[in-house]
Amino acid sequence: MKNSERLPDRDRARSIGELGKQTGTKVQTIRYYEQIGILPEPARTAGNQRSYSRAHADRLAFIRHSRELGFSLDAIRTLLDLSDDPNRSCEQADRIARHHLQDVNARIESLAVLKAELERMIRQCRRQKIADCRIIEVLADHTNCTTEDHHKRTVATVALRDLRLRNRF
Q: pTM of the predicted model, to two decimals?
């Protein structure tokens, strides 16, 4: 009997394909996470295939959930490091989450301005010929927008996020 057959299903080793199916993660993404160091490289079988443990599956689930919530890979790396030391203060994790929330709120504001501009463009379109299309007119000439702010907000939001990433929380 093979060793993996004696272990409960939850604890048995799994291939990269099985791990991918279990977590809904592409094999290519799992390899990438290994390359950048947020998912530890697994043990290898005698045939040199990757052999993932339950700890890998749990860590990958943490990464996927964090990505779904929009955290950057740098933030996830820090959060994973923090989670590896359960007795540590959660102050830094809280700070990371608060910064991320600020970024999300800024993006929501920016998206609300963009939404309003798009709705206005669509309302003003007569749906006749392209030569008279308000959507094309506005896209061709930014001065036809009601707010010049939407471009500036988007640029400012991206710049703020990049600055925070460089300062590493």
A: 0.71
